[in-house]
Amino acid sequence: MLVTNRFVVDEDAAASFTERAHAALAALAARPGYQRGQLVRALEDPRQWSLVTEWESVGTYRRALGAFDVKIYATPLLAESLDEPSAFEALATAEPGGQVEVAVSDRATDPSR
Description:
A 4-stranded antiparallel sheet has the order 2-3-1-4. Strands 5-6 form a two-stranded antiparallel sheet. 30% of the residues lie in helices and 26% in strands.
């Protein structure tokens, strides 16, 4: 599962934002199910940032959000992200030089399930 939180940060606030984002990333990285993460900034517009994390499953990500350190360091930062979808499930993957592998969606096809 991939989580991408996008932010617009004025250049005069970038140092403070970066410090808080590092603390958020560290708190998330300490949780079970966390696989990797990055703080990235757009090359074309240095005001555009993203915190990108990858998780073992939807459940591990949701449980991570309930952890004390995540509530202290990550949740306030994530609340500043753009109001748009941020959690994505992987439906196809390919390793370098490998074939595309298709995954079944975790979403129920019947909304009543």
